[in-house]
Amino acid sequence: MNYSEAIQFLFDQLPMFQRSGAVAYKNNLDNTHYLDRWFNHPHKQFKSIHIAGTNGKGSVSHMLASVFQEAGYKTGLYTSPHLKDFRERIRINGDMISEEMVTKFVIKNKQIIEEISPSFFEMTVAMAFQYFALENVEMAIVETGMGGRLDSTNIITPQCSVITNIGMDHMQFLGNDIPSIAKEKAGIIKEGVPVVIGRKQTETTAVFCKTAEEKNTKTIYAEDLFEVILKSKETNYLLTDITFQDQKWLSDIKLPLAGHYQLENLRTVAATIHSMKMNGFHLSSEDVKRGIEKTITNTGLMGRWQTLNTSPLTICDTGHNADGISQILHQIAETPHNHLHMVIGMVNDKDVDGILRMLPKNASYYFTRAEIPRSLPSEQLKEKAIKHGLLGNCYDSVQKALNEAKKNASDNDLIFIGGSTFIVAEVV
């Protein structure tokens, strides 16, 4: 079995939420605990930070990993989903797990995979944790997949738990209101482990405080301690200062993630770093600044308000729920352009009408779909969009839609590509 065959085996054998949706969701941790025993509890062999939330957890995870890497820690990073290459999910000091390691893992554990039929995510978490243990990582930054309480990553006892924010997403699994979703995310809070909350929200405060009290720990609200000040905006970075309790903490940071929503994520990162320093981790100001500024080069993060071209300005972003789209639309409105071209596709289990209702009516739309089973057919997307006053044509591939937008756009126009992580995956 070579690498291509190993990956195909995993894709064919195991249900994958990103591709198939609800069929891949497991509402218990039985397989996760079984696999953990099978691999002799690898998660107990490394320290970790655990990150949940509706939006921003990927960016926060990558920034934290870059900081720890710059501070000299051997740093594991587990995130999902991947955009181009399965191996993006599992990194050490920025380097993806090797094809050889993935292949060996599948060959060696083919029997147990066939025997218990874990989900794709359950098996990927097991692979990551075993790899981190074998490679003796000193700090693992672990992003949840969905939710928290029943997430396969939730067997770890981290040095710090982080919850970025709570929005309406994955309601069919997590609940139909903000407090219910918050309760699921709060499931990552562990006994005596500090928890950083990235956004103070009226509907979630009581949930987080109650859970923290039950777990004999305290909530640390990032905005109570830190403020991130935007000094200037460039095409590929935001120039920022960070203050701690109104005193200057770090100055002139060139944040290479140019989405305005990253200011909130950076504040969450600052609060997490502060908590870790209070727990004895050595993270100098130089390490922190350098780590933040090198996030993309150190970790390979893609698809967050990423500039693909400058003439016409072409931007993609993986934001795909109401909160994420709202932030994107705000930045589009602040970005100088003559006319807006929107290359849009969505998956079929999102609140499609809710998102379409938010989109600007004075843009040209290029409706498309990603090459995964969950993608909403472009014709259906167009039909729904027309009801919300959005006009455009259908294209059977993302690349065809983008090519048409490029053909129609003038140099001073703006082309935006998004609506789904999987749409962005086909252009970065």
TrEMBL record:
Mur ligase central domain segment(s): 51-271
Cofactors required: Mg(2+)
InterPro entries given in the database record: Folylpolyglutamate_synth (IPR001645), Folylpolyglutamate_synth_CS (IPR018109), Mur-like_cat_sf (IPR036565), Mur_ligase_C (IPR004101), Mur_ligase_C_dom_sf (IPR036615), Mur_ligase_cen (IPR013221)
Assigned EC number: 6.3.2.12, 6.3.2.17
First-tier enzyme category under EC: ligase
Domain Mur ligase C-terminal stretches: 303-420
Pfam families: Mur_ligase_C, Mur_ligase_M
Keywords: ATP-binding, Folate biosynthesis, Ligase, Magnesium, Metal-binding, Nucleotide-binding
Gene Ontology cellular-component annotations: cytoplasm
MF terms (GO), sorted A to Z: ATP binding; dihydrofolate synthase activity; metal ion binding; tetrahydrofolylpolyglutamate synthase activity
Catalytic activity, as annotated: (6S)-5,6,7,8-tetrahydrofolyl-(gamma-L-Glu)(n) + L-glutamate + ATP = (6S)-5,6,7,8-tetrahydrofolyl-(gamma-L-Glu)(n+1) + ADP + phosphate + H(+); 10-formyltetrahydrofolyl-(gamma-L-Glu)(n) + L-glutamate + ATP = 10-formyltetrahydrofolyl-(gamma-L-Glu)(n+1) + ADP + phosphate + H(+); 7,8-dihydropteroate + L-glutamate + ATP = 7,8-dihydrofolate + ADP + phosphate + H(+); (6R)-5,10-methylenetetrahydrofolyl-(gamma-L-Glu)(n) + L-glutamate + ATP = (6R)-5,10-methylenetetrahydrofolyl-(gamma-L-Glu)(n+1) + ADP + phosphate + H(+)
Pathway: Cofactor biosynthesis; tetrahydrofolylpolyglutamate biosynthesis; Cofactor biosynthesis; tetrahydrofolate biosynthesis; 7,8-dihydrofolate from 2-amino-4-hydroxy-6-hydroxymethyl-7,8-dihydropteridine diphosphate and 4-aminobenzoate: step 2/2
Domain of life: Bacteria
Keyword hit for ATP-binding: yes
Family label: Belongs to the folylpolyglutamate synthase family.
Job of this protein: Functions in two distinct reactions of the de novo folate biosynthetic pathway. Catalyzes the addition of a glutamate residue to dihydropteroate (7,8-dihydropteroate or H2Pte) to form dihydrofolate (7,8-dihydrofolate monoglutamate or H2Pte-Glu). Also catalyzes successive additions of L-glutamate to tetrahydrofolate or 10-formyltetrahydrofolate or 5,10-methylenetetrahydrofolate, leading to folylpolyglutamate derivatives.
Identification of the protein by name: Dihydrofolate synthase/folylpolyglutamate synthase
